[in-house]
Amino acid sequence: MTYSWASTGGKLEGKDTGANIDTNGVPGGSYTVTAHVTDPKAKTNNEASCTSNFTVKEPPKNPPQISCSASPTSVMTGSPATVSCTCTSPDNVPVTVGGWTASGGSISGKWKFGDSQHDRRSGRYRHSKCDMYRLRGLTASTSSSVTVENPPPPPPQASKLNECQYPNKVKPWRVDNTCKAMLDDVALKLQQDPEAKLVVVGNADPSEKRKNLSAERAVDVKAYISGGEAKQNIDASRIETRTGNEGTMTSEQWIVPSGASFPKPAARPRWMRQR
Predict the structure, then answer these.
(1) In terms of DSSP H, where are the helices of the chain?
(2) Buried b (16+ CB within 10 A) or exposed e, 123-152
(3) What pLDDT, in 10s, does the model give residues 236-271?
(4) CATH architecture of the region 159-272
(5) Which tens digit of pLDDT belongs to each residue from 222-242?
(6) Domain ranges within the chain, ordered by starting residue
(7) CATH C-level class of 65-149
């Protein structure tokens, strides 16, 4: 007798009256094996066949498992955060990671927040979504969050409003009409911001020989703004006088908002502290 074998699925290896079928990689379903036998010595009816069916079952399809964590979980706008993921398969099959998305910031292994106008605000961002893909079409996803906070606002700063000149040779400490108009603007600023203070810095040119001239200029500015001659009549306690070292015939008017400090190095002579 001679035998031959055939199958509608799998890799078949037949020998004489037996055969083995390798179903590795075969999709689930029903398949048929056919055996064919021949008797070369018989003169008639020398062939016969038979079939047998078998079923291939799909392997278990458990979805993959994934977890992610962010470090740090709270950052200032523009600072990076790193997301780490652990991905496994309960069925011990290979998995791949992809599909990263973010509700804010940009993703490049490490993500920076604040790269676009949309991100320049504080809030909580679900920023790391990771999908696991397998050949069998199973996926899993997870996310972690980073709180993005705006940096604290910069501290208030003192600013120079204007500067008066002293062309009067007879009374070089007195403010003229041009300076008075400028000081009226200063007084208006102080009226609009009741928490602000004024620092007046008097300067003197080295060629000017009058003693304490720089201090007199600062005091005269204070007297004008607080003494009622100015339209706004600012409280004198809000005005501080100092002497500077600019070497010019000027007085500088600096507005100092609440919480700010005066930046310029300037002295306060002892005799000025009571005025």
Answers:
(1) 177-192, 213-226
(2) eebebbbbbbebeeebebebbbebebeeee
(3) 999 999 999 889 999 999 999 999 988 765 545 444
(4) 2-Layer Sandwich (3.30)
(5) 999 998 666 667 899 999 999
(6) 2-56, 65-149, 159-272
(7) mainly beta
